[in-house]
Specification:
Distance between the termini: 10 Å
Radius of gyration: 15 Å
Order of helices and strands: HEEHHEEHH
Number of strands: 4
Number of helices: 5
Mean pLDDT: 84
Low-confidence stretches: none
Shape: globular
Number of domains: 1
Strand order of the largest sheet: 1-2
């Protein structure tokens, strides 16, 4: 993956560019964070190559970042008839509850979209 592709992705999809989607040496990265880093090859990567543990880690990181950058605390996720805050969602992910598993599955769909859009430039 070239820096040009990452820069183009960030310009086209600024929200998706902030989504942690890859773990390098144990640290989660978003597409935007890879800009300016050493050359990264993602041509063979997709969500299917992430381990289940990677996806839990990326989901947790995503919600930590949402909490850190949000000025307000909206109710976000609607699972069945349950709406929750970012903090509640993060707690479910951390505790690996049934709702946490649903949140992770939803995040996995978001990851697929990030990879899909990255692969088409």
């Amino acid at each position: 993956m070239t820096m040009r592709l990452l820069s183009s992705f960030k310009a086209k999809y600024p929200a998706l560019a902030k989504v942690p989607f890859l773990i390098i040496e144990g640290k989660p990265f978003s597409p935007a964070e890879l800009i300016g880093k050493a050359q990264v090859t993602l041509s063979t990567l997709d969500v299917g190559r992430l381990t289940p543990e990677d996806i839990w880690t990326l989901t947790e990181e995503h919600y930590r970042r949402l909490i850190a950058t949000s000025l307000r605390r909206p109710l976000i996720i609607s699972i069945g008839e349950v709406a929750m805050t970012y903090e509640e969602a993060l707690e479910h992910v951390r505790k690996r509850t049934a709702k946490g598993k649903e949140i992770v599955e939803s995040y996995k769909s978001l990851l697929k979209e990030v990879f899909r859009r990255l692969s088409y430039g």
